[in-house]
Design brief:
By secondary structure, the protein is mainly α. It contains 3 helices and no strands. About 0% of the residues are buried.
């Protein structure tokens, strides 16, 4: 049993799709509606340097945590940081 594999030459030019070309040409000279300006990305430096912590948890616990965090719209790391902070404060 043999299998034939063909590779495309990366230098081969692909013909443009006529419908797309026609649409682009029809837009030339028309007033374009500007896209809404994207919100600026703000990077906030942590208050202090961070240190990575690696722990092993059972897969079932990981799945439950990930599901709950996704449902709440939170990152797992943020939830765990809060929990650790509450633990050391008590």
């Amino acid at each position: 049993m043999s299998k034939t594999v063909t590779f495309k030459n990366p230098n081969t030019k692909v013909a443009p799709v006529p419908e797309a070309e026609d649409w682009v040409k029809s837009r030339v000279g028309k007033e374009a509606v500007p896209d809404p300006e994207p919100a600026p990305v703000v990077h906030v430096a942590p208050a202090e340097p961070m240190k990575r912590l690696t722990i092993d948890v059972p897969m079932s616990l990981h799945r439950k945590l990930k599901t709950k965090c996704a449902g709440e719209g939170e990152k797992m790391a943020d939830v765990l940081r809060r929990m650790l902070d509450e633990f050391v404060k008590s």
